[in-house]
Amino acid sequence: MAVFTAVSLDDLSQWIKQFPLGRALALQGISSGIDNSNFFLTTERGEFVLTIFENLGIKQLPFYVQLMRHLAERGIPVPAPVPNADGELVVTLQGKPAIIVSRLSGASQMDPQPVHCAEVGRMLARMHLAGQDFEMTQPNLRGLDWVGATAPQVLPFLSEAEAALLRTEVAFQSEFAATAGYAALARGPVHADLFRNNVMFEGERLTGCFDFYFAGVDTWLFDVAVTVNDWCIDLATGALDEARVRALLDAYHGARPFTPEERTAWQPLLRAAALRFWLSRLYDFHLPRAAELLTPHDPTHFERILRERIERTAPELPV
Ligand SMILES: Nc1ncnc2c1ncn2[C@@H]1O[C@H](COP(=O)(O)OP(=O)(O)O)[C@@H](O)[C@H]1O
Ligand SMILES: N[C@@H](CCOP(=O)(O)O)C(=O)O
């Protein structure tokens, strides 16, 4: 259950008046999600999602929330934050930062086919292009600096084989990040967590994506790699499914052509994306937050993906 802060319709009756949404008519806690308290909110003006932030600090929130607004204004199907009468997007509720955003229609597609992967690839490329003139900046807080700081914390908990893999991969990624080829990669705001559970579909039509709370400025290719490592794999083995990889990459390339530098960096970045989630899952597994209510994600899933990407060459980026 991912409603950590209890809120009732009564609690909202005064608070909601600062928004141009009319009266709150219904409020329903959303059980999925692991970081925040989320509610479906019905008001006289329509359907919304209310999020109360449990862990993110008020300093980081403007980047995520303004990015959503920026993308929504440019026609990318993401939740649009609703400003209050003072133009503020983040306001306090029950002593914590909170936002109201538009509710996306549809449902997650947890068994994606090439047609769904193509939709995701096209939308991701459009999102990258639309983010180019976003003025705020914040690094990817799960980037290589975080990897370097976090790996030593989990190493004492690992078997010899896991520790060897982690050490070798961190060294490989650090070396790669120091190359001119890496420096030449296109960058901008990236979602950085575009997994199956963060995208909505109605049939074969993508209706939107959400959960921007890992977003930051990083290489666009890293975002593509994160997305391919979730959407285009056999979940049991981590192996890439060529038809889905092709569909996603071709659709992305159609909207924002890949560069020669990106073609060179593709295999290392698939590994970087696997390492990032292996490490965060290892951290959550071995060093859970106090009062953690939920079962942590299985780290071995991303260990398998990382080993796969090291052992087998993935389909190349389209030319
Ligand atoms: N704008 C939205 N429109 C529709 N559903 C949403 C929206 N935002 C969140 N949800 C629903 O809430 C759930 C939890 O949201 P999520 O952002 O994943 O939470 P957390 O940040 O806690 O992981 C999602 O799985 C989705 O069903
Ligand atoms: N996608 C990450 C965890 C992030 O959780 P989310 O529910 O906020 O997407 C993983 O699979 O490790």
Architecture of the largest domain in CATH? Alpha-Beta Complex
Q: How is the quaternary structure best described?
A: single chain
**Ligand kinds:** adenosine-5'-diphosphate, the ligand N[C@@H](CCOP(=O)(O)O)C(=O)O
Low-pLDDT residue intervals, each spanning 5 or more residues:
none
Query: Strand content of the residues, in percent?
Result: 5-15%
Q: Largest beta sheet: what is the strand line-up?
A: 1-2-3-5-4
Q: For this structure, what is the CATH class of the largest domain?
A: Alpha Beta
Order of helices and strands: HEEEHEEHHHHEEEEHHHH
Q: Mind telling me the CATH superfamily name of the largest domain? A: Aminoglycoside phosphotransferase (APH), C-terminal lobe
For the largest beta-sheet, the strand count, sense and barrel status come to: 5 strands, antiparallel
Overall 3D geometry? globular
Structural class of the helix and strand makeup?
alpha+beta
CATH topology category name of the largest domain: Aminoglycoside 3'-phosphotransferase, Chain: A, domain 2
Radius of gyration over C-alpha positions, nearest whole angstrom? 20 Å
The separation of the N and C termini measures 45 Å
Total helical elements? 10
Total count of strands: 9
- Our count of domains comes out at 2
Q: Quick check: average pLDDT?
A: 95
Helix content: 40-55%
Overview of this structure, please?
Helices cover 43% and strands 15% of the residues. It starts with 8 loop residues before the first helix and ends in an 8-residue tail after the last helix. Strand 2 (37-43) and strand 3 form a beta hairpin. The model has no long low-confidence stretch (mean pLDDT 95). Helix 9 packs antiparallel against helix 10 (299-311). The protein folds into two domains: 9-102, Phosphorylase Kinase, domain 1, CATH 3.30.200; 114-311, Aminoglycoside phosphotransferase (APH), C-terminal lobe (Aminoglycoside 3'-phosphotransferase, Chain: A, domain 2, Alpha-Beta Complex), CATH 3.90.1200.10. With 319 residues, the chain is an alpha+beta fold. The structure holds adenosine-5'-diphosphate and the ligand N[C@@H](CCOP(=O)(O)O)C(=O)O. Residues 33-35, 193, 195, 197-198, 211, 277, 280-281, 297 line the site of the ligand N[C@@H](CCOP(=O)(O)O)C(=O)O. This is Homoserine kinase. One of its GO terms (biological process) is threonine biosynthetic process.
